[in-house]
Amino acid sequence: MPKIAEIEYFRVPPRWLYVKVTDVEGNYGWGEASLEGHSEAVEGALDEFKDRFIGWEANNIENIWTSVWRLGFYRGGPVLQSALSGLDIALWDLKARRLNVPIYELLGGKVRNKIKVYAWIGGDRPDDVRSQAQGRLDQGFKAVKMNATADIGWLDTPSSLDSAADRLATVKSLGMDAGVDFHGRIHKPMAKQLAKLLEPHRPMFIEEPLLSENHEGVSEIAGQTSIPIALGERLYSRWDVKKFLNPVSIDILQPDIAHVGGITEIRKISAMCEAYDIAIAPHCPLGSIALAACFQIAACTQNHVIQEMSIGIHYNTEAGEQDIISYVHNPEFFDVKDGYVVVPEGPGLGIEVNEEAVRALSKNAKAWRSGGFVSADGSLSEW
């Protein structure tokens, strides 16, 4: 069996970290280890992986994953799991490309022919959602997601929530479905009120009504609203997910394939959730490789319901000209029609990474930094 010969990583704009693994026979695969705002930390973990895994059998993906988890003493968390995601996705891509099949064929085959998708509108300070939603409709999307609010106080004036309901009503008036992302920036006194305010407008889901670290509060809000509760981008393993399954306090889990340990772990998490009648809608405001990996999971996962797409997201447009199609030779892979993308049929991830562009744009690429809000009284609030 071919052994791993090289592990490389590339920091590319606007805020992504791509990984390439090559075996001794020249076969290669691409992965994504993006951890927004913390690229250097993940790069350090990938340097450790270079020391550990060059010379290992590239086919033994489960063994490599398990060795990272169980033989490092310290395990889990966003940094190590994001680095592992990049390695894991690249190994799956390498193996499937070598066998000339899509990754989903190695995971049992597809259960659907097309994948429902949604796109972002509104930015971190949401406004002008009508024209932005219309733009997404013109692109082929039937569903969108937007932030509920900008920065908001722990206990703010109730009228500060009114505009969120107005924006949701505006998007719904165009005939689109809409998810509303609380982004963990709203605390319980306001989150309870906002959920009640949005309920008559029937959002597709509310996302991170509270930070996932406050699972008791999430459970409380879930018991007070009929709106589906979604979260998961800040959960990094099946062990992190457990507390939301017993007792069940969510309806939709949103694991991020670039943060949760890659294809290997998201597949296991999805199976856990199916046993509790919880849907999977992977978080992915990231790059083309992470999104392609999500498509592979969507193709073969029964409880997958919808996929976030980052094309044209505000993080990309604020940074300049780079978007998910900037690093691939087959941009039609991401084409949306009537709210869906077609399940890919090409080998591996199904995308052909433009390595020349990756190497060129990675030179002197700066690390992206997370934003933040300062409240009127000078205190810090969640971004």
From TrEMBL:
Superkingdom of the organism of origin: Eukaryota
SUPFAM superfamilies: Enolase C-terminal domain-like (SSF51604), Enolase N-terminal domain-like (SSF54826)
Any Pfam family the entry gives: MR_MLE_N
Mandelate racemase/muconate lactonizing enzyme C-terminal domain span: 126-228
Alphabetized UniProt keyword annotations: Lyase, Magnesium, Metal-binding
Cofactor(s) listed: Mg(2+)
NCBIfam families membership: PRK14017.1 (NF010624)
Stated name of the protein: Mandelate racemase/muconate lactonizing enzyme family protein
Organism: Myxozyma melibiosi
